[in-house]
Amino acid sequence: MAAMRMSDDAPEDFLDVVSRLRGARLRPEVTLEEVPAPQRIAPFALALSADVVTEDDEELATGRFVLLHDPSAPEPWEGTYRVVSFIRAALESDLATDPLMGQVGWAWLQESLSAAGAEHRASGGTITRVVSESFGALAGQTPTVDIELRASWTPVNDAVIHLTAWSELLCTVGGLPPVAPGVTALPRRRR
User: Fold this and answer.
1) Which of the ends of the chain has fewer CB neighbours closer than 10 A, N or C?
2) InterPro entries, from UniProt (predicted)?
C-alpha cells in the first residue's frame, strides 16, 4: 500500500498507529489502498479504501475505513480517536424488502467487533438499502439492490484490531464465509 504524507505536526502516537495500520495483514480477498483523508473533521486522519475481490476479479464489496484523531477529545467521541466507516455490497433482490435487514447489518458490525476483541464505545450508524432501476437506453439492465452500512465508533484498544474487524465485516457483507478461528488465510497467487 502506498503511504500518503502525514502532517509534520502529527502527534507521535498517531504516527505510530498509522504505521501499524499501514502494515496490517488482512484476508487475501481484501485489497487495501490509502486514499486522501477528510480535512475538516479532525486535525489528523488516515483514510483507507478497501475492496473484497474474488480470484476471478469479481468485486463483492467496497468500503472506506477512516481513523480520525483529535487530541482535544470531542465530547461525543468519548476519546481522542474515532473510526468512521462505510461499506457497500450487492444484495439478493428478495432481501430489499426484508424489514430485518437493517438489524441484521448492525448485528454483523457488532459481531465483527466483538469476535476480534475490538473494544469500543459511542457507536452509531445507519443501514440503507438502495434499489437501482434503469430506464431509457439502460432499460434492459436488471434492477440491483445494495446494502450500505455507515458506522462510527471510538476504539478503546489497538486500531489494528478495529481495522481487522472492519475488514471481516466487509467480507461478511460481501457474502464470504468467515475464516475459522486459528486459521490463517493464505495469500492469493498472482497471475
Assistant:
1) C
2) DUF3000 (IPR021555)
Question: What's the pLDDT tens digit per position in 55-70?
Answer: 888 999 999 999 999 9
* 46 CB burial (10 A radius; 0-12, 13-18, 19+): buried
Quickly tell me which residue has 469476535 as its cell. Answer: 115
Nearest to 15 by CA among 55, 46, 56: 46
Residue spans of alpha helices (H) in the chain:
12-22, 101-116, 159-173
Residue 80 C-alpha cell reads as 481522542
Hey, what's the cell of 186?
Answer: 493464505
Q: Cell numbers 473533521 correspond to what residue?
A: 41
One-letter identity of residue 80: T
